[in-house]
Amino acid sequence: METPGSAPSVPAVPDESRPDLPGPDAPAADVTGERAPETDAAEASPGPTWRFLVAPRWLGWHLIVVLSIWGMLWLGDWQFHRAMAGNGLSWAYTFEWPLFAGFGIVFWARTVRDEFRLRRGTGGAGHGATAAGPALPEGIGVRPIEQPADDADDAELARYNAYLAKLNAEVKGHNKWLGSR
Predict the structure, then answer these.
(1) How far is the C-alpha of 59 from the C-alpha of 121, rounded, in Å?
(2) pLDDT digits (tens, 9 = 90+) for 56-96
(3) In the predicted model, is pLDDT for residue 6 greater than 70?
(4) Phi/psi zone of residue 107: left (φ > 0), alpha (ψ -120 to 50 degrees), beta?
(5) What is the DSSP letter of 154?
(6) pTM reported for the whole predicted model
(7) Closest alpha carbon to 70 in 91, 98, 96
(8) CA-to-CA separations, 142 to 17, 20, 30, 153, 154, in angstroms, rounded
(9) Which DSSP string corresponds to 155-178?
């Protein structure tokens, strides 16, 4: 809760087109993914945290996941029967479709896990979004970009630039006979 005259808890975002990115002078806590205490309290819901799983929106999500996984496994079985009938290319698809089904299961499980974490308010460092935007994955740090050295005193670069200028002067007007300028 902010009081009049106090500093805002969310850093100002310099680029309004990308409000999900923190500004260059954002504090390090915002970049590492630590959640603000007021954000955790607001997102934590009273009562059992599993109830969202039986909400109509989530039931539709579960149905789509089950149908997709069943469809991918059916396609893998179909490709297996084609491969057994002599289609050599179907052997790759025989193993590819169950792999896609496995990716679907992992994606669904991680989505449910992240929703549990969000509803419990235990996003943890590196896993949740901050008020300034999404957090970076664990193990990835933020390093300031180093400015390149000034090349004004580089003699080799100056000679190369002079050579390029000489070549440009030599070819100027070279194709005037083609009618282009």
Answers:
(1) 23
(2) 888 888 899 999 999 999 999 999 999 999 998 899 999 99
(3) no
(4) alpha
(5) -
(6) 0.42
(7) 98
(8) 21, 16, 11, 31, 31
(9) HHHHHHHHHHHHHHHHHTTTTGGG
Q: 154 is written with which tokens? A: 């580089």
The distance of Cα 37 from the centroid of its chain, to the nearest Å, equals 25
Q: List the structure tokens of 21.
A: 């990115």
Bridge partners of 130? 133
If DSSP codes are grouped into helix, strand and coil, which group holds residue 111? helix
Q: Is 70 left (phi over 0), alpha (psi -120 to 50) or beta?
A: alpha
C-alpha dihedral sign at 131, 134, 139, 142: negative
pLDDT, tens digit, 9 for 90 and up, residues 103-133: 999 999 998 888 888 877 766 544 445 555 5
Contacts of 13 (CB under 8 A, 6+ apart): 19, 21, 22, 23, 132
Give the SS3 label for residue 88: coil
CA angle 92, 95, 97 (to 5 degrees): 100
